[in-house]
Write a structure and sequence with these properties.
Chain lengths: ~350, ~350, ~350, ~350
């Protein structure tokens, strides 16, 4: 941590800050330049971090050098995390494909979608039973019945599934059915929910909040890890910017950044990022080429009548064609399809 | 709702969209211009809204004219909502001042802050027992013990208090103590939490998500209202933008916009918006002048040792001085201090 | 400047950076913490700044402590700049009101608007002869004829005027007519234009780019100052964010921040910030209360037929009423109307 | 265009708007729904667009269905534009690679970089003689001398070059040397400059403003096209968002969007988007896979001593290796390297 003093800070003010630091068990390295004094802080920062240094007389601002991450950073673990789900290896140089409808609507819809994505080569089925919706009057998901349909689809298709959880009170229920539980974008900073999924043992998909920095995203992963669950998959799904031509702006750069800062696998969701069917194939191709560890794509047998996000769903034939591109690109960048 | 067809849409495609609309009980008004055809949709839109019209052949995009709000809009209720709390009237031309520490730390801190803000003229005490923090290693609040200290402060000071709730499982507990329960910025789209606070009868402060549009904010209020709780106070607290000179960018324009779109009172929190003590007085002045129905200000007896957000807390003497400005400005804009 | 080394940086890498610094005439203060080494750089930074330190082996990133501003910062000049225009004093505790049409359209429009704003108490007339427009097919201004009409209005009304310049080749012409020349928001980073206005001697209004940081804004002022023109007025006019309910998001916080970082006066343009007539009065009130040194408001005798930005123009009667509020609020915050 | 009336608009107000429209030669299609009336406007919109309809009594807002683009849209020209430069075909299914130093510093640097990128397979050399810099104290380019060095490099290497122009007074000079002239990101809305490059006949690279919407970008291209120059190359180079982990956020989605809205070729500049060397290879791969018509990459023989943007420059060997990936990915997505 660095404490930058004001250019007119008095000698006693500088000394007072240094003394305060030493009193908290840290070491203050005072460095006086031509314009101002800067104090480098080394040693144990736990006590130091919580002090509002910038309200002390003479202090201009505080700059953080090292974040508070303990577990999910590359510095904490050099090798990439590999997660095993139903015989699949997620991470470690593989490319995992998740596909299926945004929301479970009924048995026919789910099985039709599931068979199509399985046939096209997807590894994991997606389909949600609980949906966070901006309006209280929009379809909110089938709840437990949706989970039962997903479990049935798993049996029929022989593929694991991932499902979202939005309420800490439902974590036990969802994780008793799903192979992977998902924290959606709106809940990335829902800390009680993060802690709850951290206390059960199914792998967790953690979507980046569409208005969260990469740093906040990794701190959210730290919440889960810190509770004991180390099987975390990060998912970039677009951020909110001034541009409104697509629903969100896919932050493709976040993939290599998150991979360099953390040992956790990083996926991309091109469907929720763009919100538009015609953009999903090019963004999927970009995601594979940029080096994502996996992709997650909405596929619906009848997008026009989908109850949620039909505008972004591929039809089965489109998905099947896209998978051809995915295979070629994965090979071109040296990724092995699971 | 307006459906804009592609410039090369075929006559049959236009007819198919119109037919689909009529089949859902809506009326299609087809209007053909020199470049493209536009279809106005009138009648009952409930069934129409959930269809992904833009995936139908020939459709370019859909434009929404009226949002799905039923209760919290000005069109639903012309007169401003007035909320009564402990003899105070919030809204209806008054200016309400909430002040106190960001988080309850201990009895001395809370009472010292409470006495100071009461003496300076604040109407309601703030102080949180549950804090959502970016890092799992930061102070998370005293929990139930904090609520008990707040209840004690209410007795000693004779002023009501507001406290945040971050977990749907704690809503009963928090609302059994607090006079007003708060949904924080990170939880504005935590729909299970919104529904829970909608089902109890204490007034609710709903902070705008720092990355939420005004439209999403009003829809979040609609979630609460729709569950039966009509006593909702909106709080603008800054949004996330590219500018990093302050913690967030106070969206002062959101105050008159929200007041024109909704009948609910709108407050401003200049402390969390700026994150910096020296900016709180000018932003408070701006908030009163823009016509906010209330302000909420962090005050701490010893900001430098605050466990949460000390950088933005005013000292009691600063707050007392600021209240002089608040009174003068409230008078200048015709607001009555409660 | 601080150079943060990677946690696994080798001793020789640290030494190489330090040596490189010393070779450029700076002093390296190496500080080794438990996780990583940090190198503080003091002394002459001119040569140091242009090196891409982060591409040297072992370097993680570079943090800047002091910006490159030499003239416009508060550190360079403690007392606020006061600018004299036609007997008016801008800055130094006064509140200056600029008003008039966005664009000069014809003699009648300009004089009608000018008489109205003069009668209501405005000090300076606005009216542009050159308009930067998003579409090449929109009205681009009257050019030289507009300047002549403005000069005529100055004679008739006895008030100075400000007009925008958008082309470095027109700076001589515009400054030969106008009392203050304006750099618009889109041209804040048009460096040849900044240099040109810096080389003439009329005061310059420098609008903040709607997507520029406060730091970039001050650097743009530095461009002008560095050419010899020290009479610069900063104008906050809203920034681009994700919120689309108003044209831009007025960054009211930028006013006290810019005033603390720089000695230059800071104005607010609530008309261009909001783009909407009904929002102009509350934002003007907020601007006065936050402590702006001046405001600039669009007034048009017939907003519905304005050729540019009619949606944001006040009618004369509205402006006259608003000036009553401005006077009361200026008094409440201790500002003296010129 | 659609005019949305307020829910309480009077019948006479609706009639007045319709009458006003008809008076301007447009046709008003009035459609009354259960909540409000909407007026569709068809016919000639040129006169209609400039009216501030939302200030008329009873009008809530105006929604635009068709933008004002006349030439650069796909609707105006279905087939993609192909531009020929020195025997190369840009657009039309090819992938063009531009590479070289950000700024020309001296003959050795330029030739060393140029030989390296030529050997690795780049088609066009980049190197700027005029640089827009945030600070007036940063290196601003060699000016005319830089152009002469570039012309010399063209002779030596046998490859065309692109160079930026930042001042309308320099357009003649720059275009007399360069094979392609570039409008940089900060100048995308510098309309006099756009018009000047539109009046000469060298192809123009138009970078997207880092804070401009895709719609504004296409309107900027329209400025150039409207002056008579139809050879325009769009370049996506990242936008400004709240995320600060990279210099900008590469808007990869803008590539397929711009390609669908316009017939002009679309390139990607991963170097300026990220500002960081380690991110350039993955972003380049993503750009090729997403379907860009070209890429532009900074390469410098000695990045650490570059006078501009050294942090983002690849070394020759890195670029050479990256070109291997580019070839494989281009083949995988069916693009032909020129």
């Amino acid at each position: 941590m660095i404490i930058v003093m004001k250019s007119d800070a008095a000698t006693e003010q500088i000394a007072a800050v240094a003394e305060h630091l030493e009193g908290l068990g840290a070491t203050a390295r005072v460095s006086t330049g031509s314009v101002r004094t800067v104090i480098g802080v080394v040693g144990d920062l736990d006590g130091v971090r919580s002090v509002a240094w910038d309200v002390l007389p003479g202090v201009e601002r505080v700059m953080s050098v090292t974040g508070p991450l303990r577990f999910v950073s590359r510095e904490a673990q050099h090798d990439g995390t590999v997660i095993e789900v139903g015989g699949l290896r997620i991470g470690g140089g593989t490319l995992t494909v998740i596909a299926g409808p945004c929301a479970v609507e009924d048995r026919d819809q789910l099985l039709e979608a599931g068979k199509a994505v399985k046939a096209a080569g997807a590894h994991i089925l997606r389909g949600d039973a609980y949906k966070p919706r901006t309006s209280p009057y929009a379809f909110q998901g089938l709840g437990k019945e949706g989970l039962e349909l997903l479990a049935e689809a798993r049996e029929v298709l022989g593929m694991p599934f991932v499902a979202e959880v939005i309420d800490p009170r439902d974590v036990g229920l969802v994780s008793s059915y799903a192979d992977i539980v998902r924290i959606g974008s709106r809940n990335m900073a829902n800390f009680p929910l993060l802690q709850e999924v951290g206390r059960q043992q199914k792998p967790v998909q953690l979507k980046r909040g569409f208005t969260s920095t990469i740093d906040e995203w990794l701190n959210a992963a730290e919440y889960i890890y810190n509770e004991g669950n180390h099987q975390i998959i990060l998912v970039e799904r677009g951020i909110r910017t001034f541009e409104t031509a697509a629903r969100n702006t896919l932050d493709i750069t976040a993939v290599p950044i998150a991979q360099s800062l953390s040992h956790l696998p990083v996926f991309v969701d091109p469907s929720h990022a763009s919100g538009k069917r015609s953009l999903v194939p090019p963004l999927t191709r970009a995601a594979v080429a940029v080096g994502a560890d996996g992709i997650m794509v909405d596929v619906h047998p009848h997008p026009e009548s989908a109850l949620v996000d039909g505008s972004q769903a591929l039809e089965p034939a489109e998905f099947s064609e896209l998978m051809e591109d995915v295979r070629r690109l994965a090979e071109a960048v040296g990724r092995e399809l699971a």
